[in-house]
Write a structure and sequence with these properties.
This protein is mainly β. It has four helices and twelve strands; from the N terminus they run ββββαββββββαββαα.
């Protein structure tokens, strides 16, 4: 499994994380990004470290810091909501509205039977996602998500509970049927760096999205901004 590099300089890497590759080594064993960090040193002494997280099934832009100082600054940018994140998701249904904003607080719950999941809860942590419809075909809709906050499973829960349609293939908040994985892709990432040029990365549309007949109309626009 090759790791494509979307951005590289002395303090940062952005890779196109493949779907199915977890960041941490699974308890049951198997490959993980953790096993690949040595090859991502690319001549540097330190292994790069992921600044944020993507679910195992989620593909696309993942930022890694090449030193502790950069890691601290990038993590602060995420915490301060200064990072622009663009996701693409395929939802299992046809949405009536063209665009909107979902503001549903999220809280974690856990049961012995079903394990843990995130749920909308009035006393949960604030979570805000802006969205717009890009295309619709065969009972599926391609949606662009731009989350303001970065809560665990935020887009997955907001799709299911806010839009009323789960992401295709989501085994927790929807149903596994229709796709071999949760159809969510981190398509774009922009990280401000003060006086330095921002980190700008765009991950191409994955083959499994294209196989369902979708294209990314925003990709060319984002690419010209680099």
């Amino acid at each position: 499994m090759q790791l494509e590099i979307l951005f590289e300089d002395g303090e940062a890497l952005v890779i196109d994380k493949p779907a199915g590759l977890p960041l941490d080594r699974p308890r049951a064993g198997g490959p993980s990004l953790e096993d690949r960090l040595d090859e991502l040193k690319l001549g540097f002494q330190r292994e790069p470290f992921p600044v944020h997280r993507l679910d195992r099934d989620t593909s696309g832009c993942l930022l890694l810091a090449r030193n502790p100082k950069a890691l601290k600054r990038f993590a602060a940018a995420f915490e301060e909501r200064a990072v622009e994140k663009r996701y693409l998701g395929i939802v299992a249904g046809e949405i009536a509205d063209e665009e909107g904003t979902i503001a549903l607080n999220l809280s974690k719950v856990s049961t012995a039977k079903d394990g843990w999941r995130m749920i909308p809860a009035r006393k949960g942590k604030p979570a805000v996602t802006h969205w717009r419809q890009l295309d619709s075909r065969n009972g599926l809709t391609l949606v662009e998500f731009r989350p303001e906050t970065g809560r665990t499973h935020q887009i997955r829960v907001h799709a299911a509970s806010g839009l009323g349609f789960p992401l295709l293939g989501d085994p927790v908040y929807g149903s596994k049927g229709g796709a071999p994985r949760t159809m969510l892709h981190a398509a774009g990432l922009t990280v401000p760096r003060g006086d330095k040029a921002p980190i700008v990365a765009v991950a191409p549309l994955p083959a499994d999205f294209a196989a369902l007949g979708f294209t990314d109309p925003g990709a060319s626009v984002e690419t010209t901004d680099e």
